[in-house]
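Margin note from the TA: students keep mixing up input and output lines. Inputs are the sequences; the output is the structure of the whole complex. Example:
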Amino acid sequence: MQNFDYMTPTRLIFGRESIVKLPSVMSQFGKKILLAYGGGSIKKIGLYDRVIKLLEGYDIVELSGIQPNPKYDPSVLDGVRLCKEHNIDVILAVGGGSVLDCSKAIAAGAKYDGDPWDLISYKAKAQAALPIVDIITLAATGSEYDCGGVISRTETNDKIGYMDPHLFPAVSILDPVYTFSVSKKQTAAGIADAMNHTMEQYFAADTTLLNDGFCESMLRSLMINGRKCLDNPEDYNARAEMMLDCTYGCNGILSLGNSPSGWPCHAIEHALSAYYDITHGEGLAIITPRWMRHILSEKTIDRFVKYGINVFGIDASLPKQEIAQKAIDATYKFFESINIPMHLRDVGIDDSRIDEMAHHVAVNEGLDKAYVPLTEQDIREILVASL
Amino acid sequence: MQNFDYMTPTRLIFGRESIVKLPSVMSQFGKKILLAYGGGSIKKIGLYDRVIKLLEGYDIVELSGIQPNPKYDPSVLDGVRLCKEHNIDVILAVGGGSVLDCSKAIAAGAKYDGDPWDLISYKAKAQAALPIVDIITLAATGSEYDCGGVISRTETNDKIGYMDPHLFPAVSILDPVYTFSVSKKQTAAGIADAMNHTMEQYFAADTTLLNDGFCESMLRSLMINGRKCLDNPEDYNARAEMMLDCTYGCNGILSLGNSPSGWPCHAIEHALSAYYDITHGEGLAIITPRWMRHILSEKTIDRFVKYGINVFGIDASLPKQEIAQKAIDATYKFFESINIPMHLRDVGIDDSRIDEMAHHVAVNEGLDKAYVPLTEQDIREILVASL
């Protein structure tokens, strides 16, 4: 078991109508709020009006139009400028992981004198950040319970995951009802995203019995509840279980004491969505089974066997190799069964930039230190197998 | 799924030699430290000397002799007096759950003008508390990651579990090596304590798939790693897994979204250890299987079936009633196999005060709202079955 230093100070207010606590939550932080959101879905479901009404008496400055795979320019830069101009006290992020990730970069940038990209690219370390409160409308990224974010910079094809302990949300408000209207496509992508967060931690050299069981239970829950959400988008319990499952995805609680894994599927997928702006969860679902097949060996087979038996209920009396293959097949088939496009060509990616992406990942993502180390050639092979 | 409002802001510094971070941790809080500890085992293992050396330059006031089932008088009262007299900035608790629980009561009492019992008995609400740092030497209670404590008041036979969000430790330092010297008796009691914390949350009317799997994994880990700790007290990995398992026991993370269960075994055991000052974990191990047998019914059987299959690997094709009975037997036999005395008479308790204890629990513990509501007669029957 590995040493660790862990803290997640975020307060989770979870459940139906938990938004009623918003005014008392916001009153801790001051009167000037930057309200950050995306493309208007929060207006469609009435959440925008509800927030505005609950926050009567506050000074609200708005930053809207934050996109999926949130962009440094214009969203982060605009947000930082607004915070500085209006002397903002607190950021209220309303939306999915992209809105929240963008808000985290803004929160750090607002308290930094230089170019905010210095912080995202780890050239400088944040000394402070504005407090962040969020209301989550999409179950997927787990950004509501971690201190990280992913920001894309279009002109350099960079998509960087950065973390800083100042960036834990102070409070995350999670009402599963706000996810009822999430499309089947985005629901499925959220399931795949959270499942992959779990697998990235489960597939490691040194794990604990507790973490293994916790991850296996997470994967089973995401598949069962995720499918229920797709079948009946207004199934409160299924949406609620899926939402909380997703919340645990990225703050490390699933793998305290495990050895680092390198998060290889994320590393590869970040190139895909940086180069092609595809849906992150779909990219992960495409990469995952190909990565699994690539790293399956005598050395890793026991992990796949455990995964197959405990997550998919594969007959433990079969030969190891057969269990492992069935487990990988089952992973692929699950994603396919929830209608995720399972080839890169299905999401508009051909082989023209494979070499370039493989090189980018190999140079920038440190996968030589992954659970199973990956060279540029390995990454290229995984991408080619995904075409 | 139930609504919840959850936060655990404690920083966990876990692993071999994590104590080296102590000076930088303490430097956040000020120069005047109340060093709280128990009967001297921390001197025997060299931890006391290590702490004193690491904290050269600090003003240290000592409160020693804190007992298991920590006492309001003298420990809490003495601690509060010392904090006020010496204008203490931070409490450093070094020891097991009892030392830490006592330190929590002191931390609240030091910032309160009236009788500290007001806080423990919920007559008054803490407005502030001194910060607490702890170094844990016994894996059991989970106090290092929750905001609660249990304090006994001998003259009234009260043993009260109280909670207050001000009482989360700021930092918990957990080095499994400090648990190498824990006796077999205390190791076994710690296993039983943490297992029961998990069961108290698992046996509830409304649970989630994720929580069920998390709890089942916790129970399996505690049994497997706990036994390894007993067989080889210096097995680092087993001590480490057990230590982290125990840490999750009481802060609610195992049951976010579950319906409340009432923690019935704890409620009953608190009377046993208040009246007879027995070892808490042993009392829990004695009560648990009798409570299980008492509440097994058509209404609860599915929970026992799930428990039996997933925790003990009982054949799922057997009749439900048989699985449930086998699961309860297996629970009893596991505790017996780690040499816990499994009858009240083995720990010096006869039938002379059963009625009095049953009445005390029925009046004070609210078990009419438990997972399976318990009347005074139910509690008496469970106690009689435990004799």
